[in-house]
Structures are given as C-alpha cells and as structure tokens.
Write a structure and sequence with these properties.
- There is one protein chain.
- This protein is of the alpha+beta class.
- The protein folds into two domains: 155 residues, no CATH class; 194 residues, Alpha-Beta Plaits.
- Helix content is 59%, strand content 17%.
- It contains 13 helices and eight strands.
- Strands 1, 2, 3, 4, 5, 6, 7 and 8 form an eight-stranded mixed sheet that branches.
- Strand 7 and strand 8 form a beta hairpin.
- The two termini are 38 Å apart.
C-alpha cells in the first residue's frame, strides 16, 4: 500500500485552508460559467466565440474552465494576495483584477482553441484567426471583460470578508450558529508583546506599527497552523481559543513553540530593520466561555465569562512573576508534560479575583 505522506511533502494547515478556498472558488466559478453558458445559448448569444456545442462536448469546456479557474484562484489566494499585502485594499483590488483579467483572456483563448481544434476539427491557424476576430472586432471582449471584472471584484471582496475572521468563524456567523449564546468549554490563550513600551519609545510611530504588524503576522501563522481560532487583536495582543480537549491542548502547546520558531527564523530581519528581536508573553487557561453574536453595523462573535477574565489576569501575571509562559492547573492537568517542562508558582492571587489559583510556568 502506497503511503502518500512519505511521497508527498506534508501540507501545512495554513496552506490546506488556502487550498480549500481555491477549490471553493474554482467550483463556484465553474457553476457560474455553466449557468452563463446555457443562458447565452438560450438567448442566441453563443455565436461570438463560443461555438454551438453538442451535449457530449460540454464536459470538455467545464473541465477546462475548472482547471483554469483553479489556476487563477491559486494566483489570487497564494501569489497576488501576498504580493499586494502592504498595499491599500482598493489598489490591490484594481491591480489584481487587471492581472486576473489578462489570465482570463488566456483561459478563453485556450478554451477556444480546444473547442475549435479538438471538437470542431478546425486547424490551429483558423482557430487563432477566429479568436482574434471575435475578440477585437465584436462586442465579445467588452462583454467578457465586464463579466470577469464583476466576478473577480465580488470574489476578492468575499475573500477579504472571509479573511477578517478566523477559519470557520465567518461561516458560523453566516449560518447563525451563535445567534443564541452558547456555553462551550474552551482553551483560551492571551499573547502579547514583551517590553512593548521600551520598543515603542525606541521606534517612531510608523516603524513601530510595522513592527507590531510583522510580529502579529508571524504569531498568527503559527496559531492558524495548529487550528487556533483567533478571537481578536487588541494592539499588540492576540486572543485565541480552541475547543477544550486533550488533542487541542497539544495543538495549543505546538502553536506556542512554532510561534517562537517563526520569530527566531525572522530574527535577523527584525534586528536589521528594527534593531530589536520581539519576544512574547503568554497566559493560558481552560474552562467555560459564553459565545454569542453581537453587533448591528459590524457583526462579530464575542466570548465572555470568568475563563476569559482569568486568562487575561494570568497573562498580566507574567510581568509580575517575571515569567514568559504561565498556564493554569486546569490546563496543565490535560496535557502530558515532562516533569522539567513546568514549574509550580504556587497559589497566586490574581487581581480582581476573589480566590487564588495555582499557576505553572512553562519551561520550553
């Protein structure tokens, strides 16, 4: 039996999520093309560049459309999104749309040649001439560019909305999963930048903002890689959660280790550009949280409860106890750590809490 994991390189969770998005875009675009194709035929608009095809050749068109749509979606999600990450949204939309329209024109050319040569039996030179004539001597090009532009802009806007939320959160809101508040067991992690005040004093406002943005980008990639659900960003702080089970306690720890590795890999870049290597502090707790949809103009999911408040206090205790990573006993009891990997800090009285809680410093 072939074990593909040994043959193919392991795909990271972040890439897997992006590939799912690429697949979804390709499927939707193919479905739109099928609807548009039959609408054009029914309105006798199929004479320009789309030949009147028999039913048995429709599959060829849609296979080509799907493959080319997947290629364009891959460019949009993986290549262009990264290339225009530091540009304004409107400029990114315009530039990516122009690039993708050129790609769509190439796709139409390939589809046309495939039909003309493979289905209708025309020679290649005739197919090229016919494409040129239909593209630049009829209204076909204007109609297609308008259609592609609308489709691409709508898709890009939806991607931006999707990316605003953690993976899965957008669909939870779309499906109304948390219209009625629900109580769930969650692992909650608060992460913030260590020594943020001295760093802010060292850097000017704009360099400091760029520093924070890169710091959060590297941390977020590690969290998403291990299925962390990012709840919110507050300045240099990230709040993330997982459903509470033993598997996710390990994912939580793995994300913490990977976040540190990400910053170490980019260490030379941070030192060269900002003159400082970022470090972070972490507070982790587990327990019940109440999750519900809030907002009128801007809808979002809110998490509240004692677990959230306690985790925030644990993160604050990192400074008071001179530790980088502190977890509660409720979390530690559900993860198998070696004896030397944690150290009891005893019963600690957290600010605003009526009772003490046993905390542990992670030695990782």
């Amino acid at each position: 039996m072939i074990r593909w994991k040994k043959i193919l390189p392991e795909i990271s969770n972040a890439k897997r999520l992006k590939l799912k998005l690429v697949l979804a875009i390709a499927c939707v675009w193919t479905l739109v093309d099928i609807v548009n194709f039959f609408t054009s035929l029914s309105n006798n608009l199929g004479h320009s560049i789309v030949y009147n095809v028999i039913e048995k050749s429709l599959w060829l068109r849609e296979v080509l459309v799907f493959l080319m749509s997947a290629l364009v979606a891959y460019m949009l999600v993986f290549v262009l999104k990264k290339a225009f990450r530091e540009y304004s949204m409107w400029f990114g939309l315009l530039a990516k749309s122009l690039i993708l329209i050129c790609a769509a024109l190439i796709i139409s050319f390939l589809i046309h040649i495939s039909y003309s040569v493979g289905v209708n039996g025309r020679d290649f030179a005739y197919a090229v001439h016919k494409f040129w004539n239909d593209a630049f001597h009829t209204y076909w090009l204007f109609q297609k560019v308008t259609y592609w532009l609308a489709l691409l802009i709508i898709t890009q806007v939806l991607i931006e909305v999707h990316d605003k939320y953690s993976p899965g959160v957008f669909f939870d809101i779309l499906l109304g999963k948390y219209l009625r508040p629900k109580v769930e067991e969650r692992i909650v992690m608060f992460i913030d930048l260590k020594d943020s005040t001295p760093i802010a004093e060292k850097l000017d406002n704009i360099p400091y903002f760029k520093f924070i943005r890169e710091f959060i980008y590297q941390i977020s990639n590690a969290l998403i890689e291990h299925d962390g659900i990012i709840y919110q960003y507050v300045g240099d702080e990230i709040v993330v959660s997982w459903p509470f089970n033993e598997t996710n306690t390990r994912k939580c720890m793995a994300s913490l280790i990977e976040a540190r590795k990400n910053l170490q890999k980019r260490g030379e870049h941070f030192r060269r550009r900002y003159g400082v290597l970022p470090e972070f502090r972490v507070g982790i707790h587990a327990g019940e949280v109440t999750i519900g949809e809030i907002g009128v103009i801007k809808k979002d999911l809110a998490m509240s409860g004692d677990t959230m408040n306690t985790t925030a206090r644990i993160r604050t205790a990192c400074s008071e106890l001179n530790q980088k990573f502190i977890v509660s006993k409720a979390f530690l009891d559900h993860i198998d750590l070696a004896e030397w990997q944690s150290e009891s800090l005893g019963e600690v009285e957290l600010k605003g809490k009526n009772h003490t809680i046993e905390l542990f410093a992670l030695k990782i």
